[in-house]
């Protein structure tokens, strides 16, 4: 699982980049915004340092400044993220940068952009903008005749419910082919999320356990030990269900449950994701718990009397032969005891056997994939100690490379988009299936229960798993 620096690349050798879809120009709308400041410029600089950036970068924003000022801003921003800036590397990176400013709703901006891009180029437009501007920007790119066979990448959220997602898809598809549209979910660029596919399909020891015959329940947890802080206005309009469950956790569920693709190309992988999401029964509000941490209402930007959830736990069912009758429990929340994201498969219990010295039933075997922090895999077995009591035997493996730096999610996603590898981007059918699954919880949201910061959410979440294995605390020990 761990790879040395010489074996790693932003696009792994098992992926299938399409050189005919590679881009020679990256146009970043909103380059001076929050995402650009925290992630995009840093990721592009890191790709430059690795020798993997091979295109011009045109920044677009409303701020009136020059290209020289953008270069100075980029250096300051990259350094502020904690990245060590090397003069020679940054000089190469700076030579790629150009800045165009204007109003994204003004046709004059697109005429200027057309002149800057020039003829005969294949740009990738990256829209780091509010979702309400996705369609207006794409429609103006088409009107200015600078779309052609270019690709367009958009950030989440993609819609705020099933109807709005369909409306947005319809507007974008009126101008773009689906193969030109890249829906970005940074979670899909994380190394252990990608590793999950290889672990399942390359290891018969695991593949043989990966179904209803061996698995009694699956728990997927994304816990955060911090609150909303300065994101109150944004978060209050979204909540945990839209912010995390509809995209991140359902994509992880798809990777855990899908059948192996027949080929390694983007559509083969995404066909299997859409197929398995289509087999997930729509969520039942009776099997969902919402919570809000004490003090959330005092966060600046949060509406008075807000019922937005900062914690969500729900039970889902996959209606196919492999997973029928196996419950999938998903939970996510703010202000929980720790920060951790993991997938935990709880295997069926061994029977009570007279030949064993301890008559009580042993703890279930478990397979744990830790996504954050310190990504790794744990296989939990049981043995017997000197006092004849059952004790866990944990087999741990780290995904950390032995040498070199792992690729950060936005590094990987930007490089994949630029080189024509679309496997890590979500397709229209999967987005709509994800909204279909959570729509009943939006139409009929359960009551919001209060919980104390530092707890594991409201007590009602414990009752959600009644009759099944109780919630397990995430694995937090060392992976090595």
From TrEMBL:
Per the record, a Pfam family?
G6PD_C
Residues given in the record as NADP(+) binding sites? 62, 103-104, 156
The catalytic activity of this protein is classed by the Enzyme Commission as 1.1.1.49
Residues at the active site: 248
Positions that bind substrate: 186, 190, 224, 243, 334
List the InterPro entries hit by this protein, alphabetically: G6P_DH, G6P_DH_AS, G6P_DH_C, G6P_DH_NAD-bd, NAD(P)-bd_dom_sf
GO annotation, cellular component aspect: cytosol
List the protein's name.
Glucose-6-phosphate 1-dehydrogenase
* UniProt source species: Streptomyces liangshanensis
Query: What gene is it encoded by?
Result: zwf
